[in-house]
Design a protein that fits this description.
This protein is mostly helical. It has a domain of 228 residues. The protein contains 22 helices and no strands. α2 packs parallel to α6 and α13 packs parallel to α20. The chain is globular and about 60 Å long. The mean pLDDT is 83.
């Protein structure tokens, strides 16, 4: 069995830097703009090009590109670079056309996707203008994902995972630098965020270029839609894209529905989503990305026993990391949200509302992370249809739940439905998994998962107890709040680890050792 811990550690370190800067970006965003008309408009505008992001960027492109490129790599660097150049050139053309069309038709897209904004004066127009500015981000993030796919094939995970940090740096700097300039000219300063998104997306690609050439990539001016290898990529890409299209339709429907809820609902959900993505990116995406590259390699080499052992190793590892982090963040959600956002224009009421969404989002993290690991097996075997069907079912249930629950619990319906649909998605993939790797006993995995939840809940209880005790002792200054969260988090994790050992989960000691020492 391959030890994927080294790759995960490299990816996690880079992602940790990126995600922390991402939270700084959101903190700056909350300080400057709080929650209101402009933030709702920006979040809706940013969602529109992101509707295409998963299809042309990280998820679909990686699932289709990496398995085929791994096979070509075995033929030599020339064959590998020819395919990579062809995919790059086609991305430039196809995504470039989508970007131009998106800019032209942004007013019409906004009227469809955020129809409810029409009840607020100038909100639709502001959203349309922001959308037109942000749309080129799609092209930059697509070619950045292409670079990540190439580097992951070369077992290089640190630089691609660090690249989003540069996106975040420019997303932080631009609104700060431009704020006074825009205000003095009577322009809504939220446009500084839009400019930062464009510059950051471009930098996310550029920062990977030196490593591409270090790993042997040499660009070829080659464009061939009839290339057999490109057809293999498309054969994998299309079902993934269709499955993601269903997910994106879900996001579109969600945006449409949220636009009818109370003002600030979309902003609260976005702030909660950003915190939720910290453990998902650090651990779920990290393990899934490394697993896809490693399992694709074993499938190409016909080492099917290694595929099975690597899958279950990665699945137990990702549950170990995500269950602990998700449950503990859920227990400490209020103080964490307050530290990150509550200043400037962001009020205590906004903190309370965001916390409720965060808790409902965060409990679905282990399921979302597990989906990426199990789907990696299907993609490595060049079967992208099964994950697509699972996505269809999950999305359908998600939309139905949103329509039913939003009448009862408002904006909270959307994170709750997301969590439930993630559980359904992973259940479907587990049901069909034996067709790829043979029959297996799921009971040990379920027992392992349940014990992790128990241990994490104990850790969470200790953490929130320490947090409340220190709050009364240290006060609520920002520095003391940060120190409080650090201490509470350490106590929670130590308690979690101790309870795991008491419950007989010896694997956690091995996983911790592998992640630290590699």
């Amino acid at each position: 069995m391959a030890d994927i811990a080294k790759g995960i550690r490299a990816f996690t370190i880079g992602t940790a830097i990126s995600r922390v800067l991402g939270l700084v970006r959101e903190s700056v965003f909350a300080y400057l703009f709080g929650a209101g008309r402009s933030t709702d408009a920006f979040n809706a505008a940013f969602r529109i090009p992101n509707l295409f992001r998963d299809m042309f960027a990280e998820t679909a492109l990686s699932a289709a590109f990496i398995p085929v490129l791994t096979t070509e790599k075995k033929k030599g660097k020339e064959a590998q670079n020819l395919l990579a150049s062809n995919v790059f050139n086609i991305l430039l053309i196809v995504v470039g056309i989508i970007v131009v069309l998106g800019i032209i038709f942004s007013p019409y897209l906004v009227k469809i996707i955020a129809f409810g904004f029409g009840s607020v004066p100038n909100k639709l127009n502001l959203t349309a203008n922001l959308t037109a500015i942000i749309f080129p981000f799609l092209l930059f993030i697509a070619i950045a994902a292409w670079a990540m796919g190439y580097l992951n094939t070369e077992q290089e995970f640190f630089v691609p995972s660090l690249a989003p940090a540069f996106f975040n740096v420019l997303s932080i700097a631009s609104p700060i630098v431009l704020y006074a300039y825009l205000v003095n000219r009577g322009i809504d300063p939220i446009f500084g965020m839009a400019i930062g998104v464009i510059l950051g997306g471009l930098m996310q690609f550029c920062i990977q270029i030196p490593m591409l050439y270090k790993k042997g990539f040499h660009y070829r001016f080659y464009l061939n839609f009839k290339d057999p290898n490109l057809k293999k990529v498309f054969k994998l890409f299309i079902p993934v894209a269709i499955g993601l299209a269903a997910t994106r339709i879900n996001v579109t429907v969600d945006t449409f529905l949220i636009s009818f809820l109370a003002e600030r609902s979309m902003t609260w959900l976005n702030y909660a989503f950003r915190i939720m993505h910290l453990p998902l990116g650090l651990f779920g995406i990290a393990v899934g990305t490394v697993a896809l590259s490693t399992i694709s390699k074993f499938v190409a080499e016909k080492k099917y026993g290694e595929v099975r052992s690597t899958l279950f190793d990665s699945l137990k590892l990702v549950f170990f990391l995500t269950v602990s982090s998700a449950v503990i963040i859920a227990f400490l959600s209020y103080p964490i949200t307050r530290i990150i956002y509550e200043r400037g224009m962001f009020t205590p009421f906004d903190t309370y509302a965001t916390t409720q969404a965060l808790i409902l989002y965060i409990i679905g993290i282990p399921f979302a992370a597990g989906i990426r690991n199990i789907a990696a097996v299907f993609y490595a075997y060049k079967d992208s249809k099964t994950p697509m069907y699972a996505s269809f079912v999950a999305v359908g249930i998600n939309i139905a739940l949103n329509l039913i629950l939003m009448r009862i619990i408002g904006y909270r319906a959307f994170p709750l439905s997301t969590t439930i649909s993630s559980f359904i998605n992973i259940s479907i993939l587990l049901y069909f998994l034996p067709r790829k790797i043979g029959a297996f006993n799921i009971k040990p995995i379920i027992k392992y998962f349940v014990f992790l939840v128990i241990a994490a809940c104990v850790g969470g209880f200790f953490g929130i107890f320490i947090n409340k005790f220190l709050s009364s002792s240290l006060g609520i200054s920002f520095l003391f709040q940060v120190l409080n969260i650090i201490i509470s988090g350490i106590v929670s994790l130590a308690s979690f680890y101790a309870v795991c050992l008491i419950l007989g989960l010896g694997e956690v000691k091995n996983y911790l050792k592998r992640l630290i020492k590699g």
